[in-house]
Amino acid sequence: MAKEDIELIKNGKRLDGRKFDELREIKIEVGVLSRAMGSAYIEWGKNKVIAAVYGPRELHPKYLRDPRRAHLRCIYNLAPFSVEDRKRPGPDRRSVEISKVSSDALSSVVMLEKYPNTVIDIFIEILQADAGTRCAGLNAASVALADAGIPMRDIVSSCAAGKVNGEIVLDLMKEEDNLGECDLPVAIIPRKKEVVLLQMDGKLTREEFKKAYELAVDGAMRVYKMQKEALISSVNDVIIGE
Ligand code: UDP
């Protein structure tokens, strides 16, 4: 059976009842780990993701140091128990790729020039996965960086859109990601709407791409609002002493 023949949309609704432009439920918590400089936890549909920031701290080995800026190192890890078919522990091609694109995206907002010769480590741990984990990880990492008080030009906000049964839809869940026609994760710097990550798994026409891209950016802007709200309420909790 061809992918487009698998019924993922019934009577104009998706498998989980969402509309085409609807996000899954998102919950963000700030400062969840006491030993990290900054941390955040995000639940995004069935995804459960933790991000922890350590540093800026001395970078070893010394030859990796850059006298002009800090080195930002993002490590994305899909836990063995996070997916239906147990994943072999340790890095694989996919996690190395996601770590690289996440490091690049976050490096474009962190003021690395303020901390020469150091490293800022960001660990993204996927505890439960249901598609869109790279977006969830980036959103959590941005909030964790802000929680660590690391100077940034803005935060990074991310969301995916894609094509399922010929329809352009927002925020694909696992069945849609695996059985749909295309997944398009996007990450932006919200105030400038500058793109810092854009990947595409599948095929879209030029018009479909435009529609999916605009939908993903709109989703990322909605996530941006939630990131800001989570950060503001965490600061208020500290001031009020909760
Ligand atoms: N997945 C899995 N096993 C793996 C890798 C991925 O079951 O080894 C699942 C997991 O639910 C993940 C989804 O496939 O969220 C989609 O993976 P993709 O590579 O598209 O990345 P993501 O959408 O999570 O950023």
3D architecture notes:
There is one protein chain. By secondary structure, the chain is α+β, with helices and mostly antiparallel strands. It has one domain (16-241): Ribosomal Protein S5, domain 2, CATH 3.30.230. The chain has 4 helices and 12 strands. The strands form 3 sheets. Strands 3-4-5-7-6 form a 5-stranded mixed beta sheet. Strands 8, 9, 10, 11 and 12 form a 5-stranded antiparallel beta sheet that branches. A hairpin with a 2-residue loop joins strand 4 and strand 5 (47-58). Helix 1 (93-107) crosses helix 2 and helix 2 packs parallel to helix 4. The radius of gyration is 18 Å and the shape is globular. The N and C termini lie far apart (55 Å). The structure holds uridine-5'-diphosphate. Uridine-5'-diphosphate (UDP) binds at residues 78, 83-84, 87, 94, 129-134, 174, 177, 183. Uridine-5'-diphosphate (UDP) is lined by residues 78, 83-84, 87, 94, 129-134, 174, 177, 183.
